[in-house]
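Dear H.,

Thanks for agreeing to be a second pair of eyes. The structure we're designing against is below in token form, covering all 209 positions.
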């Protein structure tokens, strides 16, 4: 499949294409770039975007909605040096998140395993996780253990979220708390007894002394 895209358009949209067109082989300088490993579907979206500044289907007026496709477009745009396509794609991703919906964990996993690291998409994934009702533990099942002195957290999915993702989520929570101006010592939010171990006795023997 051949795509005829104007050279100036290509060079202004993509640092990668600009480099290839100026420093490539004679054939490339003539204006022919072969991309045998790039997905045809993604190249079609790139071609659509470069002429319409949008990912909307000309017939339906709607952008693609499949998570994996949107992620693939975003990663391709990063790989090929097309930041404006990345921005359009991340806007589509953001717009299609329903209220209270986070980016699915399977997609989060792919985002965190992608190279080069899609930093902004990681941020969006971590923030989207924060808006899920129930907060941090919604994706997990947290339940009180009525007989013991604590609670257990069990994964609701079989997949463990990437460690860096959990770290980002925690950092964001912390930033949010700091922005709210929480000045008290978090340690003071807990009763001293919260950190005690009471295996046999019902009441605390040290707090009231
Ligand atoms: Zn105690």
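And this is the sequence the design step returned. I haven't edited it by hand at all.
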């Amino acid at each position: 499949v051949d795509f005829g895209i104007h050279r100036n358009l290509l060079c202004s949209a993509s640092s990668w294409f600009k480099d290839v067109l100026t420093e490539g082989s004679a054939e490339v300088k003539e204006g022919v770039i072969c991309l045998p490993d790039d997905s045809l579907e993604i190249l079609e979206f790139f071609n659509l975007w470069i002429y319409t500044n949008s990912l909307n289907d000309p017939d339906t007026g709607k952008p693609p909605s499949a998570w994996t496709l949107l992620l693939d477009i975003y990663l391709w745009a990063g790989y090929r040096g097309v930041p404006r396509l990345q921005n359009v794609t991340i806007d589509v991703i953001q717009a299609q998140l329903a209220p209270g919906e986070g980016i699915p964990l399977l997609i989060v996993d792919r985002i965190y395993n992608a190279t080069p690291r899609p930093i902004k998409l990681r941020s969006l994934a971590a923030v989207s996780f924060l808006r899920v009702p129930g907060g941090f533990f919604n994706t997990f099942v947290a339940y009180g253990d009525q007989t013991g002195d604590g609670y257990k957290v069990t994964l609701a999915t079989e997949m463990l979220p990437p460690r860096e993702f959990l770290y980002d989520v925690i950092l964001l929570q912390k930033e949010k708390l700091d922005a709210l101006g929480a000045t008290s010592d978090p340690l003071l939010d807990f009763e001293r007894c919260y950190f005690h171990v009471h295996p046999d006795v019902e009441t605390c023997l040290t707090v009231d002394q």
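Two observations from my side: The beta strands are 140-145, 150-155. Residues 163-179 form the longest helix (17 residues).

Warmly,
E.
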